[in-house]
């Protein structure tokens, strides 16, 4: 029977000098870390550098982890903050939902061969970083409202409001694309 | 007759499955094509989002991270070890000093009188040695970090 390693066991192992145990942490969190980075950062060349930065920060600060949240949530928070810092250095806004042109790529008018998932992905890419991130954390990574609030520092009310607006935006854009397609 | 369509909020929650569908909502959905198509759209969005591709680290990035973690771990071990060495060295020096003084002077009372004076000189020498050793250690670490922490150019 396999042993399920808890956060505490893994963290203690790493703190005692077992660097191999850190690889378990990477296994547990890479999906979350990479989803946040992919949604927040447009620049492909920076994505893996930021992922490295996140894990090095996590390793250096691991002694300070107080088990008040899940380890994955804590690393998610580091990821989110690292991305926000990167974007603020580049002076890119993370909240502007209406200004889609900054992030969006123009959709070809011929949508007949694009499937729904592809169109949806295009529409998600048009959203600003924070909306892309929270919608992915909620629907894909299946984080709870509380966990997303911890990661992003948003209040629950703001988070729900942002999720509502992002979903509505996606739905409206998709309906518009389907109408175009029908014409 | 005025028709009360479902609100966006209701549509989103019904599609998520968290809003209880009462009879009035169900009745409306049965007859209203507009609300039905919007609900289906939300359901499709949620399904696509849930089944979207997961992103992973490449093997080389993962190896780079682990290399850096090992360098950090070993440098922190060197740091801990160097302090242990210095504390041991200090205690040994004090003992050697005491024994040599007793051998030279022969009188333990004079030794005990001279010892506090020497306590000022010995720590000063030791502090100098510690500072020197630490600067050497940190210089070595810097070289190691420069070697391992070059940002990855490709992925």
Question: What does this protein structure show overall?
Answer:
The complex is a heterodimer of chains A (183) and B (155). Chain A starts with 6 loop residues before the first helix and ends with a helix. Helices cover 68% and strands 0% of the residues of chain A. Chain A is mainly alpha-helical. Chain A is built from 8 helices and no strands. In chain B, helix 1 packs across helix 3 (33-50). Residues 149-155 of chain B have low confidence and may be disordered. The interface between A and B is large, with 37 and 34 residues.
Topology diagram in text:
The complex is a heterodimer of chains A (about 180) and B (about 160).
Chain A: H1 7-15, H2 20-40, H3 44-61, H4 71-89, H5 116-126, H6 129-139, H7 145-152, H8 156-182
Chain B: H1 8-16, H2 23-31, H3 33-50, H4 59-105, H5 108-148
Helix pairs in contact in B: 1-3, 4-5
Features:
heterodimer; A: 183 residues; mainly alpha; 8 helices; elongated; B: 155 residues; 5 helices; disordered C terminus
Uncertain segments of chain B are: 149-155
What share of the residues of chain B lie within helices?
over 70%
Share in β-strands of chain B: under 5%
Helical stretch count of chain A? 8
Give helix % range of chain A: 55-70%
What profile does the largest beta sheet of chain B have?
none
Structural class of chain A: mainly alpha
* Strand segment count of chain A: 0
State the end-to-end CA separation of chain A: 59 Å
Largest interface: A-B, 37 and 34 residues
Overall form of chain A: elongated
Order of helices and strands of chain A: HHHHHHHH
Output mean pLDDT of chain B.
77
Number of helices of chain B: 5
**What oligomeric state do these chains adopt?**
heterodimer
Q: In one word, what is the shape of chain B?
A: rod-shaped
Low-confidence stretches of chain A: 99-114
Largest sheet of chain A: none
